[in-house]
Automatic annotation (TrEMBL):
This is Signal recognition particle receptor FtsY. SUPFAM superfamilies: Domain of the SRP/SRP receptor G-proteins, P-loop containing nucleoside triphosphate hydrolases. Involved in targeting and insertion of nascent membrane proteins into the cytoplasmic membrane. Acts as a receptor for the complex formed by the signal recognition particle (SRP) and the ribosome-nascent chain (RNC). Belongs to the GTP-binding SRP family. FtsY subfamily. Its main location: membrane. It comes from Bifidobacterium psychraerophilum. The keyword Thylakoid does not apply. GTP binds at residues 218-225, 301-305, 363-366. HAMAP family: FtsY (MF_00920). It comes from the Bacteria.
Length: 413
């Protein structure tokens, strides 16, 4: 057979085979389209992180624009909803991001947090109630009452005062009606908490100066920077304009953390471009920015301080003095970790002496059996607890409600 003829037959066979493969591929593609299946991604789609559903071959990370928003940064109500299906248009992600930027109102969050406050404060109150409703109280019972109060961080002085009043009250020794005992305990705890004390933030009042300046102070690990960010959200929910100053220049991530909080509610953050910059100069620039912007509130976050570092405590005074060259500091809020108990009291005293504090923010009250710190810190310093943080959510910060707290202590559940 002629060689040219053989070559021609082979070439013709290859061409025919290629045509058959192409026809089959096209038919399969159209069948997938008609059945609702998505065609398998091509190599180019996998290598392009901007393609819908694509991955970067280089780092294997899914396109971040198409990832669902993390539940950790969503408002609790939004996070509890079923996760929506991403449709590739970006509309769902945009809606979730918009929801994240809308802080919960102060009234709504207070109602929502009351039940958590009751749960966190309940353990020692329930133990107290169980003892005081016994038919006859012995010395051992009174000692147990004292132990319960001390373990709940009510403090030695406040515990002794409460026990003395209970022992001398005829309703305890002569009354076995549980409701009467509960009402007795309620009234005495409210006295210890000084229910008439003014707990309102100056910035929330109608006659507040503009800007109303709040300094946030506290040792490392109490959640101070997080609390500053949550406080900004609370003011935004009250339709106030806010500026934040990142005067914690010694912790590398502090300014970034504060800026992240600010971005979520469109609050500008004044910060230094370098770590270790003079905190007072940052506070000064933040004060000027707040005045220029006609802001309602300026929140200044300061570095976490160790109570035995006198030079660092002096620096807090310097930050305040420099800030007040432009505006008056209305509030100095000390952030305390509720789980630290009496160690937190030692911190509070040092800060009170160093700079003077106008209020306490108790963070990490969720699940804590040490709710008595509310009583002891107020009794020792004469400074009210103004805010409490009861969870990880961005809106889990609310004004402290003394009556709700006491009712939570005495709740039976």
């Amino acid at each position: 057979m002629d060689t040219k003829l053989i070559v021609g037959i082979i070439v013709a066979a290859v061409v025919i085979l290629a045509i058959i493969v192409a026809v089959v591929s096209i038919r399969r593609y159209h069948e997938q389209r008609s059945s609702g299946e998505s065609p398998r991604p091509t190599v180019d789609a996998q290598a392009n992180p901007d393609a819908p559903g694509g991955r970067s071959v280089q780092d294997g990370v899914t396109n971040p624009r198409l990832e669902p928003v993390s539940a950790q940064v969503l408002d609790p109500i939004v996070a509890a909803e079923p996760a929506p299906q991403i449709d590739g248009t970006g509309e769902i992600a945009t809606r979730m991001a918009d929801a994240e930027r809308k802080p919960e109102s102060s009234t709504s969050r207070l109602l929502r947090l009351r039940s958590r406050l009751a749960k966190s404060a309940n353990p020692f109150g329930k133990a107290l109630f169980n003892i005081l409703t016994k038919d006859a109280l012995t010395e051992a019972d009174w000692e147990e009452v004292e132990d319960i109060l001390l373990m709940a961080d009510v403090g030695a002085e406040a515990s002794a005062q409460l026990i003395e009043e209970l022992r001398s009250d005829a309703r305890v020794t002569g009354q076995r009606d549980p409701s009467a005992i509960r009402e007795l305990l309620r009234s005495k705890l409210l006295v210890l908490l000084d229910i008439d004390k003014d707990r309102a933030l100056r910035a929330s009042r109608a006659d507040a100066p503009k800007p109303s300046v709040i300094m946030m102070v506290g040792v490392n690990g109490t959640g101070k920077t997080t609390t500053a960010g949550k406080l900004a959200r609370l003011f935004v929910a009250e339709s106030k304009t806010v500026v934040m100053g990142a005067a914690d220049t010694f912790r590398a991530a502090a300014a970034d953390q504060l800026e992240t909080w600010g971005n979520k509610v469109s609050v500008p953050v004044v910060r230094s471009d370098r770590d270790g910059a003079d905190p007072a100069s940052v506070a000064f620039e933040a004060a000027n920015r707040a005045v220029e912007d006609h802001a309602d509130v300026l929140i200044i976050d300061t570095a976490g301080r160790l109570q035995n570092k006198a030079n660092l405590m002096d620096e807090l005074g310097k930050i305040r003095r420099v800030t007040e060259k432009t505006v008056t500091v209305d509030e100095v809020l000390l952030v305390l970790d509720a789980t630290t108990g009496q160690n937190g009291m030692a911190q509070a005293k040092v800060f009170a002496q160093a700079i003077g504090i106008t209020g306490i923010v108790l963070s990490k009250m969720d699940g804590s059996a040490k709710g008595g710190i509310v009583i002891s810190v107020q009794k020792e310093l004469g400074v009210p607890v103004k805010l409490v943080g009861l969870g990880e959510g961005p809106d889990d910060l609310a004004p402290f409600d003394a009556e709700a707290f006491v009712d939570g202590i005495l709740a039976q559940g």
